């Protein structure tokens, strides 16, 4: 948020007088008061929960603390800090130690400065009581200690481990802005005790089944596929059966026993039924239930904190009315406040909000209406003006002529959509065919021309600013894809015509763009649209999960790199090195790992570590690493599986489930939040008291021309899932 | 239900006179009336929904139709019909065709008779309107036609296919008693449209990704591990990527591209994120949501039908009271009815039910109270009598002596449980150790003695009939396991001492029993108990799922056997046949399938088909079968995966989730159903009007001795999950 400035475009006194000046007997509010109130409101709006000092100086510092520039800088330096792993040993792009150390020192400095700024803003005792500050300080100190030790060891040519790298992703969690991430971790931590009990029971079942397997199968002298004795070592059985839960070794582990007798299939069927199906479902149930429970609790606290902040803001700005009664905030003070909170808000939007708040048109609002404001501000209201098409203004005779009207009607017809869907399908077939054929290669130009024509026609028919409005996702998508495909195809043709050389990269981009174009079909089928919209709506929350996954992956990648780096080597396809056959490690000679060409699944740098961890998330294949190090290396993989698959992936599934349930229940009950209702009421109010904002009136769907028919509603309330959560305890 | 008999032990008139004879002016109800009312009530109680004829003769036939003997016979013959697959070609135990055909004819005859009986019971027009009857008739006719054709073909030595075998499991669904199963299938059918749309979107995403893979990776000349070109055939890519969703070929399919460049990992990561994680979660969400929705609708209809039946029963038995007003059912008629509905009900229990229904002790009940009876009858009420210990009666001096009291207190102490848990843990370690060691082998006797001692001590302290009451699951479990372990160990020792020969089977049983004993530990940890109890509670519903799975598996097994029988052969371990290396099919020479020793995963008989289908449910490995037949054989496996994994397993997971959510929400809110409350109220009523059943009074927890302290409550209301559903719309 930028520094507050006095707004000059609206005469201050007139607004107060118009409404009968209810603040007659009250002293005018100072700039400090407005700053303080604005900060309270914006904290409530963005769910910040910081107990800052209320002295004018601290407030000013706090406003600077919340400015977007230091925030972006902070995240940039966190990113730099995290991506140092690319350049440190084991590196993809090796850099000397002093260079990475210097960059890391810079990062540490930035983090320290940011923390120092924070310490200035909030009271001293609050600062030292907050575990996240302590965390950051400890991380910074430990990193510094580690760097000194490592530098000293390297200087004396000793072996050193940069163990503090594990701590880096924790910064992402502990910075003030990592609120969502902290909430997610807190939810996980709170759900852990319940998960733990189910996990114990699951482990108990695993131990019992392993014991039974040892007793039943160990004495029969069976052999596994590679000739080693089958099910004779208890720990080995335990591990094999654990992996069976992940279905990674599904038929293999059972085959020797099954080949011996049909009867043993019963053992494995029971095992799979109980442990793979029932226990994994119970994990999901427990995770889902607890996650939801604690999320609700968090949201409840958040709503309480928000209300508290708004009450504080009200307390700063409140005035006593002449006739006594409840304290109120005047329209004038409210305007000034909103201008501070959202400097870029339009006057029309502000007036809309005011008329929602000031239901009875009294010129001032009470506490209850004021408290609702934080939620009101969060609702995005798209104001659509029934502007005529620019061509209509330029040459109305032509634009309103019969052929032009016919064209407009054609483009708006359902058949137009269907024809283009068919074109896309034909295009899909053409893409699938061999593009070496000159006919196919040239057809690409025809398709591009058709797509361009579609966009131009739509621009002719629809008002361009409405067509490219902020929330017309598919229009933007279409245009960007088609235009970039056009550019890429032109560049590609140019490159091809200049010489025989065909750039693989450009061709790849062309292909990807061509295929992406096909996705457009989805939008024209209504049933698909609802599913896609739900998926798009949970997008932001998936980003939080992305951060969570990155934090966990980063920690495991750092540990994995220290444990397994260089144990498995990858040789390029064309390498003729004899070591290629066993990934450069004789221990892997003849192993499945080498035979299946898994050599690139290693911990030799941070990128391949991440890819390997993703593979482990999908299917827990880790026998290779136990072979090259020690059987106990499996512990690393089991811990990873428990952390990521049993806990985090289940939370992810729970989250998707919850999002869809909310979507279905909202769709079904046609429930409208109180805010939607208020704005609907206001539509009437606007229609009646149109003098409120005469120069820029919010138009209705009905008063707009048929041009905007395709746009479903005037106010698109973009209640993202997270906002839905915030509102639900109210409704 | 057995034929109704006039009860003789209670004088009929006296009951009526005692209560002031409210049925003074009404004619006495005939036996037919009672039969009809009893049938309505028992239909309501067991949720039967059959519109039977109400003529006395039809009612009598209908009572015979509901008798348990024909039902058990029917299921026995269905089982025989289904297990014919074991003896028909491809058979495990080959029988001549005439033998299996004769048995099948017998089965058909039984089914026809049963259907004929049913046709006598319900009105003609209802019979022909019911799709399940039509289904059975069609199945019977088709089977007959198929048998004739097959017999004729075999007689002329032509090739014939017993295609009607696919229809056999459908009998399980369409018989009158397959209500639960039909309900499950109906829920699936109703959920299908929604699943279908998500599935289309998923297929669309698959097609787009495959096209992109073809364009990006097909032209690079990459090779798979076995040297064939990588990602050049569109259908092959489609199949590979579909299998990637099941995670069966997780790293393998990606390795050639990943080995070529890190960049291609992005493609696969995106693919896995979207299709494996998001789409599979969406499937679960959609299945869960729809299943729940339709299940609720079904339950609502069921409750409505139940109420309707009870109203009809009330209509048969109702009488006008002397003073006018609402019609009622007298205590006397009610008693007679209940005796018909549940001949084995205890008098005390019946009186309890009556006092719940007749709240104000008026001697007669109205419609509302009568309608509730069906639910009341379904609640199992365990009556515990505070009987003294038999030893107390035999020699009270000894049993009440100080050492005996001390012993009782010791056994009831927490430490006793802990000591035995420790013994079990030590036993677990001993089991894990090598039993060849004589010390270990002899320790088994010590453990057995300890366990026996525990049971005897408990029998000394607790009243034996309370200890072995119907719902003391763990007491029964313990005793059965310990006693059978003792017997098996003795038999084993006897066999061993007579000669050197050790029977492997007996030893296996001994080991299994030893390990099962360890499960007991679970019961002594409270947190575990709740989880286990939920699992036990969903047991009956899992049986319905078991039937559902068997129906689907059976159909796929029959089709699979016709398609793939004899294509892959299994040779025993010790066989020296050179064909063993490629499962008897030269097409498999050098394939993964043969190398991994999967030869026993075949469709050569019904048992191995079932095991293979289970393996396919866990991990979709089917490349071998496409090799030995044709690439299109994969369709069979894809259809199986869609049907079983995407639909049925998701419903199973949804079911477990729902059961746990219900469990958690009930535990949390401590919600009591109205019936529980009523019975609690009654506890007081019993305490006050103890003259109601003086000779056999239901005792309170408090009035019983400390002996029964360990039993948590007097009335254990066993509301199974299905019953919970039935009640929830009321509460």
TrEMBL record, chains A, B:
Keyword field: Membrane, Transmembrane, Transmembrane helix
Subcellular location: Membrane
Region (Disordered): 1-28
Predominant location: membrane
Compositional bias annotation for Basic and acidic residues: 1-20
Domain (Ion transport): residue spans on this chain: 72-294, 416-664
GO molecular function, one term: monoatomic ion channel activity
Gene Ontology CC entries for this record: membrane
Bilayer topology term: Multi-pass membrane protein
Gene3D superfamilies for the chain: 1.10.287.70, Voltage-gated potassium channels. Chain C
Residue spans crossing the bilayer: 68-87, 93-113, 134-153, 195-218, 230-250, 262-288, 415-433, 473-495, 534-556, 635-662
Descriptive protein name: Two pore segment channel 3
